[in-house]
Amino acid sequence: VEGYYTKIGRVVIAHGVLTDISTNGTTSSSQLRITGVPFTINVANMQGSARHHTVNYQTGRTMFHVEANTALNAIRFMQSGDNVGDTVTDHGDMTDDTTDIIFSVTYMTDQ
Fold first, then answer.
1. pTM confidence score
2. What is the 3-state secondary structure (H, E, C) of the chain?
3. Is the pLDDT of residue 45 over 90?
């Protein structure tokens, strides 16, 4: 993972690039997420944009985005579609050592 962030007051803007993601040693249901964010995420449902190379969508999903998740204090990569709930991208959705993701997300912190 290569990334950087800017913090202005309570607003954190994070950008990152994940290249040739390895799924070695994980199970197909292991969620793709980034932990160790620089500041605690304290406002729910903060969304961002993302694009990918070789992510396979789960049934009924046609869109891809990034979310700053308060419960996990982590960044997650979500799939969504028309009339279906969002689901987390997991390692079974990626091609080992091939999948790339570029993202940007803005979230609020209390720090």
1. 0.93
2. CEEEEEEECCEEEEEEEECCCCCCCCCCCCECEECCCCCCCCCCCEEEEEEEECECCCCCCCEEEEEEECCCCEEEEEEEECCEEEEECEHHHECCCCCEEEEEEEEECCC
3. no
